[in-house]
Amino acid sequence: MKFSVATIDRKDYAAVRGIIADSYQNDGPNTDGDEVDMVDRLRDSESYNDQFEVVAKDHNHRVIGHAMMVPAEVRSATVKFPIVSIVEIGVLHGYRNDGIGQEMVIELETRARLAGYHAVSAIDHSDFFFKNNYVPADNFNILPTVAVDFNDNLIKPLFDGALYHKGGKIYYPEEFFGIRSTNY
């Protein structure tokens, strides 16, 4: 299947809302019902960077996938450093398992590396991120500040030694939360 991945444009917002709603229609373990509103809140936030939000389009320029990452911070009593976190990824049902999600993640990781970030995190209950070389963040003593299973709090260092002696808790932008709970 032919598709392209590009930075989101405002005219793609309506299609993205549909993709997010489509991705969570089964009300599975990765949803709390706030995903569409969360993306809108994050776009309105001071830390929003449109280069960290991409869409996949088919050969007819129809939006078929969406992914977004936001700056976050790992903090402890002795360490404080920025990372980015993929907070939303979705592909329309008819286009899944064609590598679209993986290509969007690769694009976001490349953009994060070029922007000088050391790691990308994600919260996910499926095997998708594990298949893309993410590991439980507690392997690096990096803990969640949201109520998730430890194995769902994932991270991928973007180069060797990127997370050496950098443990702490991941703090997300305030706009991420909405109805989500934290365990700060």
Automatic annotation (TrEMBL):
InterPro entries: Acyl_CoA_acyltransferase, GNAT_dom. Keywords: Transferase. This is GNAT family N-acetyltransferase. The keyword Transferase applies. Residues 32-122 form the N-acetyltransferase domain. GO terms for molecular function: acyltransferase activity, transferring groups other than amino-acyl groups. SUPFAM superfamilies: Acyl-CoA N-acyltransferases (Nat). The keyword Transferase applies. Transmembrane segments: none annotated. Gene3D superfamilies: 3.40.630.30. It comes from the Bacteria.
